[in-house]
Amino acid sequence: MSDEEIERNYRSGLPGILGTVDTLISKLEAVILAMGVLLMAFNTVANVIARFVFGESIFFSGEINRILIIMITFAGVGYAARHGRHIRMSAIYDALPVGGRKALMIFISLFTAMVMFFLLYYSIYYILDLYSRGRILPALGFPIWVIYIWVPLGFLITGIQYLLTAIKNMTTRDVYLSTAVLDGYKDTETEV
User: Fold this and answer.
1) What is the tens place of the pLDDT at every residue in 1-46?
2) For residues 6 and 148, what is the distance between their CA atoms, to the nearest angstrom?
3) What CA–CA distance (Å, rounded) separates 67 from 65?
4) Rounded to two decimals, what is the model's pTM?
5) Are 144 and 131 spatial neighbours (Cβ–Cβ below 8 Å)?
6) Residue 39 and residue 132: Cα distance in Å, rounded?
7) What is the residue-wise DSSP string for 154-183?
8) Which three-class secondary structure state does DSSP give residue 143?
9) Tens digits of per-residue pLDDT, 72-92?
10) How far apart are CA 32 and CA 35, in angstroms?
11) In whole angstroms, what is the distance from residue 37 CA to residue 71 CA?
């Protein structure tokens, strides 16, 4: 199954309301990421065409791409956590027996969730500070704090995802990297 099919057919392995919330967040992330990448590509191509055909760039194109990069980055953090695509340093983890890996994965998930919620807290204060300063984007003319709304939203979604991963590991026999990704490695060797 390709990555696109997995995302389109994503169903959380969590029971009840947790599974529903997880699936809804997954759909929201997919829409945000797809729209963000498409809009950034369209904006960039339109700016290049304007520069070469009309001799002038679209004056707000850089600000639009800045907003989209922030949006894609912080929506992408939750996506990576959901699909077990985050960077892992697994030498010690891989050497542990299944029970040790499970305990360590629960600890890692809970600790990472706490870090995400800590960053959520401080990102809200950062946005409030930007709001109090009243700065605006020069070309688009709207307040700078608005473009950073994606930061706490991304930390919130990622923290929830890691919390759900910990719950999944506490309620199942297997070890999960995320609510839908079972621990293990795909066979990457190719036949010669």
Assistant:
1) 444 554 556 766 677 787 787 788 888 888 889 999 999 999 999 9
2) 30
3) 5
4) 0.81
5) no
6) 30
7) HHHHHHHHHHHHHHHHHHSSS-BSSSS-BS
8) strand
9) 999 888 888 887 777 777 778
10) 5
11) 10
